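Shape matters. As here.
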Amino acid sequence: MTQAGLNSIELAKQNGSWTILDEVEELIIPNDLEETFKNHKGSKNYFLSLSKSIRKRMLTSLVLAKRPETRQKRVNEIATLAGQTKNTTP
């Protein structure tokens, strides 16, 4: 690897981007989403029934939100939609 590549890795480790998606890869539900699921009956079970790739996409959108307001909006959307569609699963 070139020095530029090594420098990029070091920078990513320093600014947190090296590990930002670790919890997403492990499919760990963040606390704010977990709490919001409690307000939407059946939403967590529906969320957990989705494929890993879909859950990762949703969790990634939370992690990559730049503003707290955007993250909260996405948390609410995920929980609300999961709560609404829980009745359509077999």
Notes: The chain has one domain: 22-88. The first helix runs from residue 3 to 15. Residues 22-88 form one domain.
